[in-house]
Amino acid sequence: MANIHDIAKLAGVSVTTVSRVLNNHKYVSDDKRTKVLTIINELNYAPNQSAIDLTRGETRMIGLIIPYNNNACFDQLLNGVLNKAVEMDYTVIVLPTQYNKEKEIEYLSKLKNKQLDGMIITSRANDWDAIIPYSDYGLIVSYDYTSHPAIGCSYIDRYSSYLDAFQLLKDKGHTHVAFTTARETESMSTQHLITAYKEVFGTFIPEYYLTGCSCLDDGVAAAKKLLHLPNRPTAIFANGDEVAGGIQLYAKSINLETPRDLAIIGQENQPIGVGLGITTVDHQLTKVGEQACELIIHKSNQKVKVPYQIIQRTSV
Amino acid sequence: MANIHDIAKLAGVSVTTVSRVLNNHKYVSDDKRTKVLTIINELNYAPNQSAIDLTRGETRMIGLIIPYNNNACFDQLLNGVLNKAVEMDYTVIVLPTQYNKEKEIEYLSKLKNKQLDGMIITSRANDWDAIIPYSDYGLIVSYDYTSHPAIGCSYIDRYSSYLDAFQLLKDKGHTHVAFTTARETESMSTQHLITAYKEVFGTFIPEYYLTGCSCLDDGVAAAKKLLHLPNRPTAIFANGDEVAGGIQLYAKSINLETPRDLAIIGQENQPIGVGLGITTVDHQLTKVGEQACELIIHKSNQKVKVPYQIIQRTSV
DNA sequence: GTAAAATATGAAATGGGTTTCAGGTCAAGA
DNA sequence: TCTTGACCTGAAACCCATTTCATATTTTAC
């Protein structure tokens, strides 16, 4: 394929002029501009993006680190990121880590390699200590709140949202409240959850805390355990509407009616929750994604809190 | 930041040798290799990916053209594409068009600009005539079947799957069968649907065909129309389990029991369908995505048919 | 009428790698 | 001893654009 020099030669101008035409600079005479465009058309020329990126030193590409690519939460986040990116003429690459530390570092290296202008981390495998150094090479925006000044944050006040969810259950008279999470870790999110739980209910009963839940089937399995406990919970706070849906379906199958016999609160306002009438804490992940993308594009390391809302339906 | 020349100078070798070290070529003596690696470490050097892409003439990046980024079907497709891409060390960029023709051409131009090695088109706004020329610059794989030899296909035999779905309803004694679609177009998919319908039921009643459905709420709205028709359908074939779920929920609200009063078949085996017990035609979109990605990576323009399956639950 | 500003153009430096080709050393096999 | 092949190395060409700087010509402003 032709390159800019070929065009220049055939049009009888310098490469500088061709470059100017390509970039719509003013200060190119009409006749030369026309001539160059004609040749470009004739040769079916298109500039090489790698060369452009090389000289410009930027790629207008944003990486999105996610743990798994088949997770409804991250779909919402991606959705938000894409909304903003397309609008601002950026491109998004999706980087699923499976919580593999080396993989995550490999992806972060794309900043250092100048393949990406910025990176959004939705969930991380490495400690911040291992991640921070990469912020020298491009803005990193996190979905976890972190106080480190180099890192931008588009985050949710989870402690507060969990507090609200538990309080809602307490107000309805529930004292035996179980909850589920996805990862079996000491993530901040889980810590907030436990702290909020203790804040509202005082004591924390280990059997009421189930982990490793992320889909409907996990919800069914969780319910199977929780609802046959000698001291069975009367309410469950699930980490997603699909899990909540699974819980509700299993409950129904053993003749426990919602909310009469079992109150359920889900999270993220997913489609299944609408269908099953599940009350949910909507953390507005699409907005979180949009905000994160905006921070990257404006090269801002601000900490932006995105408001959540509780959507009351019929499961509480 | 340092470049390969700086490394070469400080290590006392040529850039060729540094390049060899970076690419793990053999034929570099141990002492030079060690020396080079030491300097690379000291200077915290990382090669510039744009420069590499420029010389290599490839980027190991694959584009995925989708209409909207908030659609469950495309999430499944993306999931599959990512599975394969990560495995083969490729990167995926997501390109939502909103069915805008210019946008789509802009994305296809990324092949010509050598920004992408290949492109997967899940749904297109332009005619093939406008798309084909871009296959000169990188393999295009389509999710629609097309006979054009340049285009690879990872497709579903929709005509056959629709036939099966309608036949299932007919076998259960249904003669008044409605159906929904997403886009109001003459897409191949819709044509197959209508042809299959006529094949099974003979006559085609326009009021039984509703378009513009893609989420649960659309399903509710569709049901609201269909179920109050003077000659109301006894079965509905929806274009997705969320739409099907919406239909079922509305039906229930007006005291129509499934499957007694209304049979429903959904598509794509989405989470909500599990919850509501909706019989579904699973087109295995994740596999379709994986297969599409594989074709791109192997630069194969084969036409691969991915098998579908009907998952019977309780809505028929 | 003249100085300043706007317009127009190109040579050459720059960004940072890969790869071909040519040339060398050294050890194993005939 | 000589040939052959494996091993090692670097100069220079190549990939393809952007941008600075220098220069020249017109306009405009006073």
How does this structure look, described?
The structure is a homodimer of 316-residue chains. Chain A is an alpha/beta fold. Chain A has 3 domains: 4-47, Orthogonal Bundle (434 Repressor (Amino-terminal Domain)), CATH 1.10.260.40; 59-156 and 286-307, Response regulator (Rossmann fold, 3-Layer(aba) Sandwich); 158-282, Rossmann fold (3-Layer(aba) Sandwich), CATH 3.40.50.2300. Helix content of chain A is 45%, strand content 15%. Chain A is built from 13 helices and 12 strands. Chain A has helices spanning 4-11, 15-22, 30-43, 49-56, 72-87, 101-112, 128-131, 158-171, 188-201, 216-226, 241-253, 271-276, 285-297; strands at 61-66, 91-96, 118-121, 139-142, 152-155, 177-180, 209-210, 235-237, 263-267, 279-282, 303-305, 309-311. In chain A, the strands form 2 sheets. In chain A, strands 2-1-3-4-5-11 form a 6-stranded parallel beta sheet, with helices on both faces. In chain A, helix 9 (188-201) links the parallel strand 6 (177-180) and strand 7. In chain A, helix 8 (158-171) packs parallel to helix 9 (188-201). Chain A is elongated, with a radius of gyration of 26 Å. Chain A starts with a helix and ends in a 5-residue tail after the last strand. The structure holds a DNA duplex (30 and 30 nucleotides).
